[in-house]
C-alpha cells in the first residue's frame, strides 16, 4: 500500500522524524497542523488556509505514535491509508500545503522534527483554543515552565477559538505567570463555529446516519460516504 512502508519505518524511529509525500524544499516559515484526519474536516481546511496567510508552508501532520484523548474514543471511521490519501489530495493543488508523516505524537517532538527539516525557519503549531488552555495547565507537567520554554523555543502557537471559548486564550495570556510567552501565541481569524467541527463529531454524525457533506472538504466526501454506506450494510 502507498504509505505502509513509510509508516512502518517511522514506528521504529528512535528520535522525532518528519517525512513528506512531496518535497517542500527549504522555507523561511512553516506551520504544523497535527491530527488523526479521521476524517479531514472543514475545520482542518480553514485552519490550514488561514495559516497559509502567515507562513510559507503548512504541514498537515499525521503521527504514527498518537496520544490517547480524554474519554472513550470512537472506533475509526476511515482506514489510515484512506485518510492519508484524502489529505494528500487536499494538499496537492496548493504549493504551500503538504502532508507530513511523523514518528512522534507530542507537539514538542513534532516541532523538533520540523525544525531539523527546516533549519532556521520560523516554526508554528496550529491548534484550537482548547489545546492552548491544556498546554498552559500545570496539572499536565512536573515542571510546566521548563516544558513550555522547551516548546516555545522551537515553535509558536497559531490558534483558533472554539465556539463558547472566545477570549479564553487572551485572558489566559494576561495572567502574570503566562505573560512571558504572549508574543509566541497568535490568533487565526476562523469562525469559532467552524473551528469547532471535529473529526470525532463527524464520526458520530455518520454513525447516526446523518448527512455530513458540509462538514468535510470535497476530497473527503467520497471516502466518508463509502464508510457510511459500509456501516449501514454491516448493521443490516
How are the SSEs ordered, and which strands pair?
Elements: H1 4-11, E1 18-20, E2 29-34, H2 42-51, E3 57-63, H3 80-91, E4 97-102, H4 107-117, E5 122-128, H5 129-136, H6 144-154, E6 156-160, H7 168-174, E7 185-187, H8 192-195, H9 199-207, H10 218-235
Parallel strand pairs: 2-3, 2-5, 3-4, 5-6, 6-7
Antiparallel strand pairs: 1-4
CA radius of gyration is 18 Å
The name CATH uses for the topology is Rossmann fold
Helix content: 40-55%
Total strands: 7
The first-level CATH class is given as Alpha Beta
For the biggest β-sheet, the strand order reads: 1-4-3-2-5-6-7
What report would you give on this structure?
- By secondary structure, the protein is of the alpha/beta class.
- The protein has a single domain (4-235), classed as HUPs (Rossmann fold, 3-Layer(aba) Sandwich).
- Helix content is 42%, strand content 16%.
- It is built from ten helices and seven strands.
- It has a seven-stranded mixed beta sheet with strand order 1-4-3-2-5-6-7.
- Helix 2 links the parallel strand 2 (29-34) and strand 3 (57-63).
- The longest helix has 18 residues, at 218-235.
- 39% of the residues are buried.
Amino acid at each position: 500500500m502507498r504509505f505502509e512502508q513509510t509508516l512502518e519505518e517511522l514506528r521504529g524511529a528512535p528520535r522525532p522524524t518528519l517525512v513528506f509525500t512531496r518535497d517542500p524544499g527549504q522555507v523561511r516559515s512553516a506551520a504544523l497542523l497535527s491530527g488523526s484526519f479521521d476524517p479531514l474536516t472543514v475545520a482542518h481546511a480553514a485552519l490550514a488556509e488561514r495559516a497559509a496567510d502567515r507562513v510559507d508552508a503548512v504541514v498537515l501532520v499525521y503521527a504514527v505514535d498518537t496520544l490517547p484523548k480524554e474519554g472513550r474514543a470512537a472506533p475509526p471511521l476511515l482506514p489510515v491509508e484512506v485518510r492519508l490519501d484524502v489529505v494528500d489530495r487536499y494538499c496537492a493543488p496548493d504549493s504551500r500545503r503538504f502532508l507530513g508523516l511523523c514518528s512522534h505524537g507530542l507537539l514538542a517532538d513534532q516541532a523538533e522534527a520540523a525544525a531539523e527539516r527546516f533549519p532556521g525557519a520560523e516554526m508554528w503549531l496550529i491548534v484550537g483554543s482548547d489545546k492552548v488552555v491544556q498546554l498552559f495547565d500545570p496539572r499536565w507537567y512536573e515542571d510546566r515552565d521548563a516544558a513550555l520554554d522547551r516548546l516555545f523555543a522551537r515553535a509558536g502557537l497559531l490558534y483558533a477559538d472554539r465556539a463558547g471559548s472566545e477570549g479564553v486564550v487572551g485572558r489566559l495570556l494576561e495572567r502574570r505567570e503566562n505573560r512571558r510567552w504572549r508574543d509566541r501565541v497568535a490568533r487565526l481569524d476562523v469562525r469559532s463555529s467552524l473551528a469547532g467541527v471535529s473529526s470525532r463529531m463527524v464520526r458520530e454524525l455518520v454513525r447516526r446516519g446523518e448527512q455530513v457533506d458540509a462538514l468535510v472538504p470535497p476530497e473527503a466526501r467520497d471516502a466518508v460516504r463509502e464508510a457510511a454506506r459500509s456501516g449501514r450494510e454491516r448493521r443490516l
